[in-house]
Amino acid sequence: MDRAPGLSVRLKLTLSYTGFLMCAGALLLAAVWVLLLRYGPNGAIPTAPALAPYDIMIRGDALVALRILWSAFAPVAAISLAFLLVFGLLGGWILAGRMLAPLTRITDATRMAANGSLSHRIRLPGRRDEFRELADAFDSMLGQLEAQVAEQQRFAANASHELRTPLAITQTLLDVARKDPNRDNSELVNRLRVVNTRAIDLTEALLLLSRANQRAFTRVPVDLSLIAEEATETLLPLAEKHGVTVETSGDMTPTSGSHALLLQLITNLVHNAIVHNLPEQGTVWVTTRVHPKSVVLTVENTGEKLTPQIVSTLIEPFVRGTERIRTDHNGVGLGLAIVKSITQAHDGTLTLTPRATGGLRVTVQLPAALPTDIGSQGLQGY
Predict the structure, then answer these.
(1) CB within 10 Å: which end of the chain, N or C, has fewer?
(2) 162 is in which domain, residue-wise?
């Protein structure tokens, strides 16, 4: 934004300090003058020896004495005010400079951040005050921005790699078919279909992730327990194929958000719990709980023991947890990343915890819906 040039903050503070000092000095001199007028001529209080000549003259002629008193008082008052003016300007300029020195460091850090350097930190020393709280908040913001930019760069690089893989495979298959025109193309068509399906799934996952990050959806009251039942019923054939038992339990859990996104969230969690399970007789537990101010969805599954280090990386995009049991359905590597984005878009929290007996426990906590919202629009989820 273009702004007209104006006075600097340091000069404004200096003029403010000087103006206050001048007003204080003028009031003090005025008080002294009032005291002289009140007690000197009337003799209510004995005058000082230095004012004895004036006292004698006041007894003879009060007006003449008043003029003489003013002629003696005015130069002293003018000199005092001039001294206060110079002292206020110099002292105010120095004090304002010392007080505004932290702002200079903050401004320099802001310019460096605007030029793309997010690694710089202010690290303002000293005890906590308004400037240091501002500097600490700015350092925290820079740290978050740096982490987000680094995450976006990793995501872009990984997405490019993931999208390039099916395209490269397709190109290779087409080159082979072109070199051998007499070859049966039925196998080629099937492989191309598989590769193309994977590319479509990856693209749709990226679009869904972008939609969740941008919060481009309308919030409506929904019942998380009903959405969980819908998701589990859809995935029952997959569970039977893998020999996994899915158990659901819980009460009505009213919240607000996008039914489609929350359905995708629970579907991803249950899907991962099924495909990353024991080879035989695995179990998935889907439970919902309601609290005074929040609703909680928990998805647990049996499986091999996971270390906290592995669990901490599962939310990263394109991390498929290669040490988990099943590798016959790796997916596109965005399942839990989408769950994280949808949870954050609904102002919730996502927690991943390894189970002591093996497997994973995923907890999603969302704000509970207000009773007024439920009454006005009704619950959705079925």
Answers:
(1) N
(2) 152-214
pTM: predicted TM-score of the whole model, two decimal places: 0.57
Residues 233 and 343 in one domain: yes
**Same structural domain, 231 and 359:** yes
Measured distance CA(82)–CA(71) in Å, rounded? 17
202 and 255 housed in the same domain? no
Q: The tokens of 114 are what?
A: 């605007």
| Pair (314, 230) in one structural domain | yes
Residue 168 lies in a domain: yes
d(CA 232, CA 239): 9
Convert the pLDDT of each residue in 264-302 to its tens digit.
Answer: 899 989 999 999 999 888 999 999 999 989 999 999 999
